[in-house]
Design a protein that fits this description.
With 264 residues, the protein is mostly helical. It has two domains: 112 residues, no CATH class; 119 residues, Up-down Bundle (de novo design (two linked rop proteins)). The chain contains nine helices and no strands. The longest helix is centred in the N-terminal third of the chain and has 49 residues.
Length: 264
């Protein structure tokens, strides 16, 4: 697939959906600090003939180490995102498999089938709401009615309540409508897998990346960005290019850090 030129420039300058508004305040602060360092350096040179500055070589080594730390943290964040993506895809696929199995081999009762399908369809919705700590939405009411939504709202764990309702409907299919036992076992297995996938999502949600690791990385980034202007002084023809260069470096670092925070 070829990216059209118009789409490239539209996305390059897009604000909506971009992470730029979240990191821009911190980048501007870093730029102001760098500008303050430049002003202080010029003042010290003019008044006291003192040249502020640091060797650039240590920063080259530190930059490599910082890059490795950021890569490791980014990989850890994307691993969590990728696992969550597979788990959520599993919830969608298992819901489809459950409906297809019951409609193919279950009772052909016109009251039972729509009811079962609606309760299966509501599972992804309540799973999402449960992970976000939210109450039943209008979509849940549309699928299972106000009474069903109220029942879920009173539950301690909405997805488990939906799974319990589905189990009851499958038992009803066996007892009242003589559902094939093989089909029942297969359908109940699909129902149980829904909870397994949800459990994986909850594991990711309740096991965030260690706070001490984030603190260490961000402290390292802050020290690097705050001291880098001293290494760039007297190395550029125009001193006022230092804040601009520091802001560009800070934008890359902060954008990467914020993306990892969001997906991790």
């Amino acid at each position: 697939m070829h990216l059209k030129t118009g789409n490239f420039w539209r996305q390059a300058v897009a604000i909506q959906g971009s992470i730029t508004p979240h990191v821009l305040p911190n980048v501007l602060v870093i730029g102001l600090v760098a500008a303050g360092i430049c002003v202080t350096s010029l003042f010290m040179e003019k008044q006291f003939q003192v040249h502020l500055g640091l060797e650039i070589a240590p920063f080259e080594i530190i930059g490599v180490a910082l890059g490795l730390l950021m890569v490791l943290r980014t990989n850890a964040g994307y691993d969590r995102w990728w696992e969550a993506r597979k788990l959520w895809g599993g919830i969608v696929n298992q819901s489809r498999n459950l409906v297809i199995t019951t409609l193919s081999y279950g009772p052909q009762n016109r009251d039972w089938q729509p009811k079962f399908v609606r309760w299966v369809a509501v599972f992804p919705h309540v799973a999402c709401l449960s992970l976000r700590g939210e109450k039943p939405s209008a979509k849940v009411v549309a699928l299972v009615g106000q009474e069903g939504a109220d029942h879920l709202a009173r539950a301690d764990h909405m997805p488990s309540t939906v799974a319990l309702v589905l189990g009851g409907l499958l038992r009803e299919a066996c007892d009242a409508y003589k559902m094939d036992r093989f089909a029942f076992v297969q359908a109940d297995r699909e129902r149980a897998l829904l909870i397994d996938h949800l459990g994986g999502c909850e594991r990711i949600l309740k096991t965030p990346m260690p706070l001490v690791y984030s603190i260490k990385i961000r402290r390292f980034i802050a020290l690097f960005l705050l001291t880098l202007p001293f290494a760039l002084l007297h190395r550029l023809e125009n001193t006022w290019l230092v804040p601009l260069l520091i802001m560009m470096v800070a934008m890359i670092q902060k954008t990467n850090d914020e993306k990892v925070r969001v997906i991790g």
